Every structure is written in structure tokens, then in C-alpha cells.
Automatic annotation (TrEMBL):
Pfam entry (one): adh_short
Keywords: Membrane, Oxidoreductase, Transmembrane, Transmembrane helix
Database matches in SUPFAM superfamilies: NAD(P)-binding Rossmann-fold domains
Protein's name according to its UniProt entry: LAME_0F16776g1_1
Transmembrane segments: 278-302
Source organism, top-level taxon: Eukaryota
Keyword Protein biosynthesis attributed: no
Family: Belongs to the short-chain dehydrogenases/reductases (SDR) family.
GO molecular function terms listed in the Swiss-Prot or TrEMBL record: oxidoreductase activity
Length: 388
């Protein structure tokens, strides 16, 4: 068929091609839309890396978007995945069975660990560390996140009383990685260990509260500010985490000890659960009409799919630039669109602020854990007394 059209155009002229005028009129628009989509869809990770025998802890894998795409690719490359989920139930069990089937990899496991619950995070990390010799760990891929409707003035609280976005996006991930520091340091010096943490461009509008990093005393009048600040504060703490992992890291065998790297990944604007909630403000009616019907053509044109967004995460996992032998400095790398980018906020250049934020957050979480432990013990005593 295309050859017939081409032959007609050459021999008899383009006017003999059926609907030529319509085609000619529409061609510039089609070409323009195609060019825009090729630009906005994002890059593809070009690095291939077999992950057979490697063990990763993954959060946010059940999103059916970026998280699932990343987990599937890692599983297909042979990685053993320990996927943290809020609850192990019928849905997550079916989900992981489907993932195993698609990846042809049975080494995918679910572990209950609600990141909004600091006690559950500590239980998981303690169980992981309570093993001799130290368990193999090739990295953590932290992709879980929570975004609340921006026009909702109702503050949702975690089990510990923290604002839910701050609990999941910042406190939970910070606590997990902070507790797992001994596991990272216990890995052999020739093991390439990568901590990959996703962030968001909305961090640009976030704030840092050095004296109240968990935002317990902050007024809940702008939900989006809590989301943006949680991402900003986590990113800043990751720079301090890298310094702590690198400090006194030189080994007796002459290696640098810089085999554990932290990378921040900005996946771009995706057609994700967070974007749907942002546009619909949590309304099912708005989701069906505004997102799925009215705006979807524009969103398809100007945003990435979850698969494309996950390519930057895979790049951070697989690029040889982060191998110890290729490291040129000790700085945390910022990956955007499958390439190394630079930080825009001035706080990313303030090591003193990052250290203070890290130390204060660790202290505040410990204080909160102690107070919650007292409440749990008091509740158990009351329940036991009532049962007598």
C-alpha cells in the first residue's frame, strides 16, 4: 500500500493520491504533535546490567505505574526483591504472584512494613540486621510516596500522629535508611551498593524546619507545602547519609570504601497516582470527568508514562558512573531524564544545614518512638487488666 501511494505520487503527481489535500493540511499538526511527544516522553535507560544474585529492598513497587515497571525490570534481570508493603493481603499476594510470573523470577518477596508507622519500620530493620553473618544487600530503591488532595483542609495523621505525607515521604524513609546504615557498611568492599531515592520537582517550593523537622507543630493550611517539604528534607538528609557512609570508609586492603552510593532521582511529570490525585483533588467525579475525559489528551501529550519515568531509576541502578572505580567525587548524584543533573536549591550546597537536619530528625524520631512505646505498653496493661 505505501509503495502504491509512492508510485502514484512519482508517476501521476500528488494530486492523484486520495485525500491528498486533507493529508497535506493535517500533516504539520501531526508532525508537531509527534515532535512534542518524542520530546516529553522521556529517555530510555541505555545501560544493561545483569542483577542475578543481587538483593534489593524496594518501596513503592505496587503502584501499577513507575514502581511496578522498575520492580518488573529488576526482577527480569534476576534480582532478588524484598518489597515493602503497607499490608500483606489478598490483593498484594495476587500482585506479587503476577510479578513473579511475568518476570519468570520466584525470588520476589513481600514484607509488611507500613512506612507511616515508625514502629513497623524499626521492626523490619531490626529483623534485617539481626542476622550473623550480615545479610547481603545490594541496595535500596525508595519510590513510595503519598500526596494528599491539595484543597483538603482535613489533616490525616499517621499512627505516630505525624501528618501522613511527612510520615511516609520523609520520616518513614529516613528512619529505614538510617537504621540500615550498619547493613550498608557491613557489605564487602567489592560490592557495588546503591541507594536510589526518588524525589519530585515540587521540592522547589518546600521549606526546611530545622527545629521541627517532622512538622508536628506546623499549621496544616497548605497540604502541598507538606508534600514538597517532605521531599526536600529527605533529599537534604540523603546528602548527609552519603557523608556518614563515606566517613572513615577506607579499607585496610587499599580500597576507598566508597562502594555505597546514594542517588536522588527526579522521574519527571508522570501520569501517576499522585498526578491523578493532584488534579482530581481526591474526587471520583473529577477523576472520571476532569482527568480521564477532559484533560487526558493533553496529559498524554505532555507527561510521561510510569514506564518512562522508571527509566531514570533504572539508569541510577545500572550506570557504571556510580561504580567505585569511576567515582570522581563524594557528592550525591541527581539523575534527571537518564542523565546527571544539578541541584537548584541552595540548601543542597549547605553541608552544615544538612547535618543539623539529619541529627535533629534522628533525635525527634527517637523521642517520638519512646513516647509511642510508653503508650503501647500502657494500652497493653489496660487491656490485660480489663481481661481479668
Amino acid at each position: 500500500m505505501p509503495l502504491d501511494i509512492l508510485a502514484t505520487a512519482v508517476v501521476e503527481g500528488t494530486d492523484k493520491i486520495p485525500f491528498w489535500r486533507e493529508i497535506r493540511a493535517l500533516a504539520p499538526y501531526v508532525a508537531g504533535i509527534t515532535a512534542v511527544k518524542l520530546w516529553t516522553r522521556g529517555s530510555i535507560n541505555q545501560w544493561g546490567r545483569k542483577l542475578h544474585g543481587k538483593v534489593y529492598i524496594v518501596t513503592g513497587a505496587t503502584t501499577q505505574g513507575m514502581g511496578t515497571a522498575v520492580a518488573l525490570e529488576m526482577a527480569e534481570q534476576g534480582a532478588q526483591l524484598i518489597i515493602l508493603v503497607k499490608k500483606v493481603d489478598e490483593w498484594t499476594t495476587e500482585w506479587v504472584e503476577d510479578l513473579r510470573s511475568r518476570a519468570k523470577n520466584e525470588l520476589i518477596y513481600l514484607e509488611q512494613c507500613d512506612l507511616s508507622d515508625l514502629y513497623q519500620v524499626r521492626k523490619f530493620a531490626t529483623k534485617w540486621l539481626d542476622n550473623k553473618p550480615a545479610r547481603r544487600l545490594d541496595g535500596v530503591v525508595a519510590m513510595a510516596g503519598n500526596l494528599e488532595p491539595v484543597w483538603n483542609s482535613t489533616r490525616k495523621a499517621s499512627t505516630d500522629g505525624l501528618e501522613l505525607q511527612m510520615a511516609v515521604n520523609f520520616a518513614g524513609h529516613f528512619h529505614l535508611l538510617d537504621l540500615l546504615k550498619p547493613a550498608f557498611k557491613a557489605q564487602p568492599p567489592d560490592r557495588d551498593v546503591r541507594i536510589v531515592v526518588t524525589t519530585c520537582m515540587l521540592q522547589a517550593i518546600g521549606d526546611v524546619r530545622l527545629e521541627d523537622p517532622l512538622w508536628r507543630d506546623a499549621k496544616y493550611d497548605r497540604p502541598l507545602k507538606f508534600f514538597a517539604s517532605s521531599k526536600l528534607q529527605l533529599g537534604l538528609c540523603m546528602l548527609e547519609l552519603q557523608r556518614q557512609l563515606f566517613s572513615n570508609a577506607k579499607k585496610d586492603d587499599g580500597t576507598t570504601g566508597r562502594n555505597v552510593t546514594v542517588t536522588l532521582v527526579q522521574p519527571g511529570i508522570m501520569r501517576s497516582t499522585s498526578l491523578r490525585r493532584l488534579i482530581s483533588n481526591g474526587s471520583v467525579l473529577a477523576l472520571l470527568f476532569l482527568y480521564s475525559f477532559l484533560l487526558y489528551p493533553l496529559l498524554w501529550l505532555f507527561t510521561k508514562s510510569g514506564y518512562r519515568g522508571g527509566q531514570s531509576v533504572l539508569y541510577a541502578l545500572m550506570t557504571p558512573e556510580l561504580e567505585e572505580v569511576n567515582l570522581k567525587d563524594d557528592q550525591v548524584k541527581y539523575v534527571v531524564n537518564c542523565s546527571m543533573g544539578g541541584f537548584s536549591r541552595k540548601e543542597f550546597g549547605d553541608a552544615e544545614l544538612q547535618k543539623k537536619l539529619y541529627d535533629t530528625t534522628s533525635q525527634k524520631i527517637l523521642e517520638l518512638e519512646r513516647s509511642m512505646a510508653i503508650k503501647r505498653n500502657t494500652g497493653k496493661k489496660k487491656a490485660a487488666a480489663a481481661g481479668k
